Amino acid sequence: MKGYRSHFEMCMDILNASVQPIRKTRLMYNTNINCTVLTEMVEDLVERGLMKKERLKRKMKQGAYRLSNNPTKSPFFNFQTTLKGLEFVELWRKLCSLWKKESEP
Q1: For residues 67 and 75, is the Cβ–Cβ distance under 8 A?
Q2: Is residue 70 classed as helix, strand or coil in its secondary structure?
Q3: Which residue has the higher pLDDT, 100 or 57?
Q4: Helical H segments across 1-105, by residue range
Q5: What top-level class would CATH report for the domain 7-97?
Q6: pTM for the whole thing?
Q7: Where are the domains of the chain?
């Protein structure tokens, strides 16, 4: 058994899972990271420019619960890996392959 994932391994899982636009709930399920930790990590990745956060552009149904006073603004966001994030993932993979011992598969 390998054990716990490192911070960078979790970041790589997040960046790999969000190559296509994805909502936070689906990202949480795909990466198996709890909501609190995922929120902190995603905000950090967005601040570093490795991910982007976009508000969903859809109108809420009449009478639907909404968090904003403006009915055309959705409270939901999509997250997606940026080109800088994809470059970071590729560099991380190269680094990991260089770090492996000769006897490891």
Answers
A1: yes
A2: coil
A3: 100
A4: 7-17, 24-31, 35-47, 83-99
A5: mainly alpha
A6: 0.76
A7: 7-97
